[in-house]
Design brief:
Structural class: alpha+beta
Order of helices and strands: HEEEEEEEEEEHHEHHHHHHHHHHH
Helix content: 40-55%
Mean pLDDT: 82
Number of helices: 14
Strand order of the largest sheet: 2-3-10-5-8-11
Length: 295
């Protein structure tokens, strides 16, 4: 089952059927690289064929799924539109499903929105959508896939991606430093920021901040803070912490506030999220992003 393993990891995933057997999936992660800020990668390889039909929910990154499987490949369905093969998933894609059957390998690349704006060029336009990687990168997408398939190891694949993304990072203009700063503050504070306070910090009006942030990252500062805060809360719930404690730790007014936000982003109650299988291997695939286990 691979590609579905990877889809299972486009942000967070909720299985519509039988949860994946993670014991049959090999997961590879690269060594941390200070040369590629805002980029996280994981490789998935299934040791036996399987099928999957998976619903996915929001994650505070733009995600590239590079399908390295043989055969008909990954099929992603959003709002009735279907995309097959390697895809780019923008922020807040809405109702999103990935399905298919077979075995193989897939590489998932998570890009923080600031990095995505440089690497993809049109990341703001991708918000709320899923598109073919070829539509974003043209012929470069096919060339990258060919090189990745021909690579002898995951280390080689990670090096190829680092080289490719590094060139794009160095050749394209970055977002406004004020926008990058505000995103970083939003992320490091786990969404517990005041937009007006951030505007004062960078010397912008609130109106200018909202306009520049949204035009460059495809999301408003307030929505970005809610998304980051939800992500942190969801990870704590999946780690087994009770909703009341998670609400307090994540900065929600109370448990009912947490319930409303989780329902808005995941379509589930906090209790359902806590027992869902979608973060079962998060500490393996994305160890640096896993929450503290004890509150």
């Amino acid at each position: 089952m691979f590609r579905f393993v990877v889809s299972i990891y486009t942000g967070h995933v909720l299985s519509a059927g039988t949860p994946p057997d993670w014991a049959s999936v090999d997961i590879a992660v690269p060594r941390p690289s200070p040369r590629l800020p805002g980029i996280n990668m994981a490789g998935f390889c299934a040791r036996a064929p399987a099928s999957a039909d998976i619903a996915m929910v929001a994650h505070p990154s733009v995600t590239l799924l590079v399908d390295l499987s043989e055969g008909e490949g990954l099929l992603v369905d959003t709002h009735g539109q279907r995309v097959r093969g390697s895809v780019v998933v923008g922020l807040l894609p809405g109702d999103l499903r990935a399905s298919g059957r077979g075995g193989g390998e897939c590489l998932q690349i998570r890009l923080e929105p600031v990095t995505a704006a440089v690497v993809l060029g049109s990341s703001a336009e991708l918000s709320g959508t899923v598109v073919s990687l070829e539509d974003v990168w043209g012929r470069d997408a096919g060339r990258a896939e060919d090189r990745l398939r021909a690579a002898a190891s995951w280390d080689d694949r990670f090096a190829i991606v680092a080289e490719f993304l590094g060139r794009r990072l160095g050749a394209r203009p970055s977002v406004d430093p004020e926008v990058a700063y505000i995103w970083r503050q939003t992320l490091t504070s786990r969404g517990r920021v005041r937009v007006d306070g951030l505007a004062d910090e960078v010397g912008w009006s609130r109106k200018r901040l909202w306009s520049r942030f949204r035009s460059q990252l495809g999301i408003t500062p307030k929505r970005a803070a809610r998304l980051v805060r939800f992500d942190h809360a969801a990870r704590l719930l999946a780690a087994g912490h009770p909703p009341a404690c998670v609400a307090t730790e994540s900065g929600y007014v109370d448990q009912s506030h947490l319930h409303r936000e989780v329902k808005a982003f995941a379509g589930l109650t906090p209790t359902a999220v806590a027992v869902a299988p979608w973060l079962a291997i998060d500490h393996v695939a994305w160890p640096a992003l896993s929450p503290t286990r004890a509150l």
